[in-house]
Predict the structure of Fad dependent oxidoreductase.
Amino acid sequence: MSSIAIVGAGLGGLVLACTLHRQGVTTTVYEAEESAAARTQGDLLDIHSHTGQAALRDAGVFDGFRALIRPGHDAKRITDRAGTIVFDWPGSPLGTRPEVDRGELRSMLIASLPEGTIRWGRKAIGVITTPGRRPQVNFVGGSSITADLVVGADGAWSKVRRSVSSVAPVYTGTCFVKVGSAPGQLLSREGAALIGRGTLMAVAPGQGILAHHNADGTLSGYVAINAPLELMTSVDTGDPSGMRAMIKRRFENWAPALTALAFDNISDPVLRPIYALPITHRWERVPGVTLIGDAAHLMSPFAGEGANLAMFDGAALAAEIVAHPGHIEEALSAYEDALFPRSAEVAQRSASNLQQFFGPDAPRSAVDLFAGLLT
């Protein structure tokens, strides 16, 4: 039986491992983090019926997924910079895009795997490929492993990607500043009413405030700014007052009720520049190595498909491995032949949606986008 090494225990890598385990195929997952609890896995995800949900069915964990759904938390509200509501969708009991907590979904997938499948604290630094030999994964500290198949599920800055592609992600021009309630701090009554039950998207040309009302009464979200990367990285994220001052300058003409959502929740700001791979990113077949998820097709989050596609990739790759027992290269060729056009279509939509959120016609363009998706 072929040995399979999955580099990265994100949603895509875990779905791949779970789906193969369900089919009796053993894998080993190598994860840089020291444990499942090493960091908060953050944010809510819309899980789409045709991608993420389909993958979770294939992985045999659909019932576990359903238990995590937060009914109605898929509600969407859009306002302009004055706080005027221009789109308000109340959500649905389940719908085709139910929301779950990313961390809870990841924990459920981890618990679905046999003990010892995941090797924690194994940070990959590269993959060596040599004709006629199995690919070798090298880790921090000097250790290494070889496998018949190495799957890069290691995200935006994938080390595995370098063995199949020289292309690196590029900055899209939009930067997020992650904001959230301080420990023990609940949303004000006014803030909760402004956000509504699900997600508030206050958008204007070049900027926005995106906030979600969590089930425990706290806020999580992002301030979005179109600006040169050098300008954004010059702000000291270790100084919340400096970040507040920068946001205050950028949002001085916004309704105070909206800016308060950001100002009142900048206790530990995190800068998240939005990067993307080229829409048509692909690579020549490299024996024994392939990619899934962000490692293969990093894109902006504005198609809502990042996690969904990663899981779908994992399930699709598993299906090809099972369909081609003992023939890894045939499986990889079939997988990649379907992957490239699928991911290019979604990446194109993601790039277009980014413009609809923060381009010159916002918020009207964002309203048109969601009206087409949800109504």
Remarks:
- The mean pLDDT is 93.
- The chain has two domains: 4-71+96-169+277-357, 171-276.
- The radius of gyration is 21 Å.
